[in-house]
Design goal:
Strand order of the largest sheet: 3-4-5
Strand content: 35-45%
Order of helices and strands: EEEEEH
Number of domains: 1
Distance between the termini: 24 Å
Number of helices: 1
Shape: flat
């Protein structure tokens, strides 16, 4: 990790036959070390990657959502269904 930063990430799952010489990361939220950063559990969709976190400093807090949809794949209705479900589902802590 980088000194002076807090990170919450969701690594991309690997298939059993993946070549371990390449890591295609995943998604993450990164903030300054003085910001309290905590992962919020969320249902994991199959058409995009998603990570949710709560950033808090002092008496203020914000929920941050990061998602990545591969541009190499055509958008299907399932993407919109999963996105709507992710938005409508309350986060669990």
């Amino acid at each position: 990790m980088l000194a002076g930063y807090s990170v919450v990430n969701r690594p991309r799952p690997r298939a059993a036959d993946d070549d371990l010489s390449v890591n295609h990361c995943g998604v993450l939220v990164m903030s300054a070390a003085d910001v309290s950063l905590s992962l919020i559990a969320a249902t994991q969709p199959t058409t995009f990657e998603l990570v949710c976190a709560q950033d808090a400093i002092g008496s203020s807090s914000v929920i941050v959502v990061v998602l990545h949809r591969p541009g190499s794949e055509a958008v299907q209705q399932k993407f919109f269904d999963e996105l709507a479900f992710s938005i409508d589902s309350p986060p669990t802590r």
